[in-house]
Amino acid sequence: MNDATGLRQRELTRQIPRSYAGTVAANAVSAAYDRDLVLRDMSFSLDPGQLVAIVGPNGAGKSTLFKLLTGIKKPAGGTVSVFGDTVYRARRNNRIAYVPQEAEIDWDYPVVVHDVVLSGRFGRIREEGGLRSILPPRFAARRHHEASAAALGSVGMSDYADRPIGALSGGQKKRVFLARAIAQEADLLLLDEPLAGIDRATESVFFDVLVELKSAGKTVLMITHDFPTVEEFADTVMLLSRSVIEIGPPAEILTDENLERTYHGSVRRGR
User: Fold this and answer.
1) Crossing angle for the helix pair 200-215 and 170-184, nearest 10 degrees?
2) What is the pLDDT of residues 131-170, one digit of tens each?
3) Nearest in space to 122 (alpha carbons), one of 135, 107, 105
4) Half-sphere exposure of 19 (CA within 13 A, CB side)
5) pLDDT in tens, 164-176
6) Rounded to two decimals, what is the model's pTM?
7) Kind and range of the H or E element at 208?
8) Taking every pair of C-alpha atoms in the chain, what is the biggest distance, in angstroms?
């Protein structure tokens, strides 16, 4: 890490209050696989109710950051908080929803679309306790099925509720998993490259829904490589390359100088 980057990281760390309820924050966080550091001394603090684009090269640690925020992975150092709480408690309280990349999902699993979306209600069903909390999902109370149906409707997929998930196109599958996150009624949505390989119609649906969620006070973190989309829709952009290079409004952050630092000279806005 050079002197300028080290200074920037120390400045970012100082900006993070010890207790900042209502935000997503990391303080001097590192993450590693087999002792190989993927994230190093990462610090940031995000206000609620905004769309945050996470941008960086392959291998920059973007998906690892999501694993930290879902509790799938533990940090090797530092602390992560979600809405002023630990990741574990925030997840147990249904405050975190995750929309994975398509490659991470087994599409051959024999499940229909409605049941995929209904799985987003499992935490709510468990909270209610009683016999239904241990029965198969089809026995869930009517309101859970209605919430799932409403979520499917919001992404234009109501007519596909009884189809096997594996029979859908790539864009349709992504709509279904966005619907699952909506059905969960989480406060934080993590979207891992949701725009990759989708058509314009699906992209339009995604951003209509995300704007509505943001207006309702939800916080959305989205990994993307699409600079025009970031400039048009994001409130904040985080440039990530194993640590936070810069974070702030797109108009201020997406400069050639910052992109060269993030992508090591291989990407400029004009290319």
Assistant:
1) 10
2) 666 676 677 788 999 999 999 999 999 999 999 988 888 8
3) 135
4) 0
5) 988 888 888 889 9
6) 0.84
7) helix 200-215
8) 59
